Fold each of these.
Amino acid sequence: MSAVGNVASSARFAGIAARRADFPALHQEVHGKPLAYLDSAASAQRPQAVIDAMVAHERRNHANVHRGVHQLSQRATDAYEGARERVSRYINASGSDEIIFTRGTTESINLVAASFGKMRLEPGDEVLVTWMEHHSNIVPWQMICEQTGARLVAVPITHTGELDLEAFHRLLTDRTRIVAVVHVSNALGTINPVQDIIEAAHKVGAVVLLDGAQATPHMRIDVQALDCDFYALSGHKTFGPTGIGVLYGKRALLDAMPPYQGGGEMIRTVTFEKTTWNALPCKFEAGTQNITGAVGLGAAIDYLSGIDFAEVARHEADLLEYATERLSELPGIRLIGTAAAKASVLSFTLGDIHAHDLGTVVDMEGVAIRTGHHCAMPVMEHFGVPATARASFALYNDRGDVDQLVTGLNRAAELFL
């Protein structure tokens, strides 16, 4: 390697080492081995700044929001609404009233299905999804289709785990009312051409929801540039806490939609004869929300705002390439999902070793991976496997984590093959 290459490599390692230092959970041993955390697609670790923000709120500012004139309630309200403003700016919504706090991507999609779907769908209408969807972007649409008489249509995927675009354009018709598609597949890592999907869907008058749970940790999202109608994301995938998520929706659509749940905060007036609804975003936030979770999400957004995503993309692409090369050397390995455009997710099988056995063996080497169907059973059906092992990488991982995974997989091969 040239001197310039050595300098660049050293600088990249120093940058990742600094990022790793921000995440306290990474600095521990599991079964006497240093932790290699390769399960960020399930739940990313939190930086110390997020933990500190949540602890500080609990210690000094715990109170309910919007309902009190006392100082603690004012502080809590400012922190809660401040987090909403951060999210709005981060994804470039046209205003913070387009940001609805939910429990996560799953609830965000359920909200749209139950509210917008119920309002929009009629017998004979169609909802278009894909074979690579997480169950959270299949089941809510099945439920609302059963209620309304609409039909769920699934776009197939190819042998590489990419969306069959020819089939998409064939199945997208004037009967399509809603297109619900994952931005980045959790099981395959495939990055979908969502800009093209949105443009095509809008031409036939369909509304588009993007499941962005796996996209937001890896790339900057601009909902206005995408022109999506709804975008759903989860805090815990995005280096924030569990139990908090976001639904972005275009203001005109949210204004027209009926409330998802009833109760406090989402009302303007209540009598026994009639109830009127509060303005956005309160109309969709019935009851006491996860205030501390919102504070943590706001801190996570602050953390992400300080990151050079071009640098992260280069690092994660290098890591994915290295991991693909290392795992491909293993006898009996089968990589599941080899799309040209991929996020840093690597799903695989090893011989006839069950995925759960693989996960157990590599855990003994200090490596955390995910095993199972990844809430994407149609993907498993497509590839003819009951389950896969999945290593997912984030900005805090390095090649040493990959090497540790390979050591664990070699150990599994020795035991079972």
Amino acid sequence: MAKIEGICREVLDNAQWVAIATTGVDGVHLVGTWGAYIKTMGIIDDQIILVPAGGYHETEGNLAKNSRIELLAGTRKVKGLNGPGKGCLIRGTGQVQTSGELAEAAKKKFVWARGVLVIKAEEVLEQL
């Protein structure tokens, strides 16, 4: 697994929103989440991102067949190469958990959550 640290950790900590991509029978499927949701749930050991899952039914189905997942986050609060704005691409594997300790933590923090999307980072790349 890769570590989410340095600039990419700063980007995630300041991102307003995060795009999440999985692949299914119809091709790429995109969903999003608020950066504040990730900050609230936390990142375990600088490697595992937790996202509260309300819907994410298609995402869950895609991950059951192909666990590959990508996240793209960006913020203008972190200095980029050519001025304000930096991004981060995270590639790894994911799973939606609707029971267990992590799912219960998500449900406690977000009354609308049915579980948690658990993402294990395998590659972390700076963008912009």
Amino acid sequence: MDQNLKREIILDHYQNPRNRGLVDDKKYEISDMDNESCIDHVTVQAKVEENIIKDIHFDGEACAICTSSASIMSETLKGKNVEKANQIISNYYKMIDGEEYDKDILEEANVYEDIAKQPNRKKCALLAWWGIGDIVTKELKDDKGNN
């Protein structure tokens, strides 16, 4: 992906974050994430019904990478079943760590493919994804009856 296009997508999601703002609904699972090395604090919430991520929201105080990553994550995973979401999240983690991954399933999240070269920015790009990963993992366990 072209570097200018990557910057444009990241900036757009930072300035106009999708799904920002939490909702007051007990049907949503919540995960609160902090980056101890900077100001980033993100709360992620997702409503999962019948094994499908019906809705995702996030909010918090975060840098451009963290905010845009949360926005892209919410757009990428909304509407996916939890197994597919888990596969996407796993591939995202691999990409951020500079490992081999499947580009085709990451959609706009591919804009962070160079983050592995910037270790100090990895947590920024991962924070919201860790939060949704916790929620998806819980849903997978609950679906299999492993409470």
Amino acid sequence: MKNMTFDVRPEEAGFSAAALQQMTACIQADIDAGKIPGAVMLIERNGQLAYAQALGRQSPASEPAMSLDSIFRIYSMTKPVVSIAIMMLAEQGRFLISDPVSRYLPELKNLQVGVAGTDEDGNAVLKLEAARQEMTIQDLLRHTSGLTYGIFGESLVKDCYRSQRVEAFDITNTELVKRLATVPLAYQPGTVWEYSRSTDVLGALIERVSGLTLDIFLEQYIFAPLQMKDTGFWVPEPKQHRVAEAFAQDPETGVQVRLSNVTRRPLFLSGGGGLVSTAADYLRFARMLLNHGKLDGVQIVSRKTLEFVRSDHLGEMPLARSGASYLPGPGYGFGLGFAVRLSPGGAYTPGSVGDYNWSGLAGTYFWIDPQQEMIAIWLMQAPEPRAHYRQLYRNLVYAALL
């Protein structure tokens, strides 16, 4: 894939060649200025590859140029993959997404909700109240489970996550579930969107229901059928020369950058953020989604399941967007693993009603615009400026449409 060929000239796919050249120049200028090490960008429209660029260096500490087959830590772009895996099991009748999670993971039954309060001296204390309803599998898929992350932001519940080492990397999915059972929920289940360990719990659920470890399940049912040959939870030694790396220190904020070690199989197979992949592999996954769950004769999920997945599942929850940080952002709802655009306006960037996306901590991002029959992928390894480049890339792509 180092010399990926275009299926059509940009104009044949409805893009301005001059605008795409301007996009290349814009990103190259930031690379030349030392803002990011490099990036890979792909755009496909109407089933035809219209743009593919690998810019900059694969690693700041070595000479090789970025390549279209460079391997990236995609972090939370793992979540859409695991969400689709869950829907595959639902299609097999292994469970209903309305089922309580505790039916399959009994450790998570009878959880309590942590509510911040004060004691007689005015000190902050965490009070506990019973959950009014159990989290469902649907709650896990749409991040309304009541779970949270301990690594983002501050709260008394997040303090509990850190003290109980909920987010340690030297544990299995089974151990993660056991530790989550010892900490309170951040919200009542089914009420508030909160970015969380929900998709990691989905990974544990896949293991419990299928009897397979998450890496084997995804390989057998998604990666092999879709010919995603470079996607997994670690990079085998013969491919490690293709791993993209970040600056040791962010050039603008000065923050030390620490990315996951992907040179060996991890103990923790994180369904929420553990995968590595390439632009070509993730393009095949996105093609399957855009093509109603099917690619090259292989049906991963049904057309109607895909419609269900990319529909907003928060609309009837009045408090859904009232949490500390609603990451889908203005103009977006959330489906079963994806942010989903609800209106032409309101968002920070152009798009179409019904387009859906997600991103990763180290700077990766993708979206699918069914109205435009378009897939766009952005891959870099630079955590600090990730929000800036998500918006910038999206602006530049839509600016290039004729």
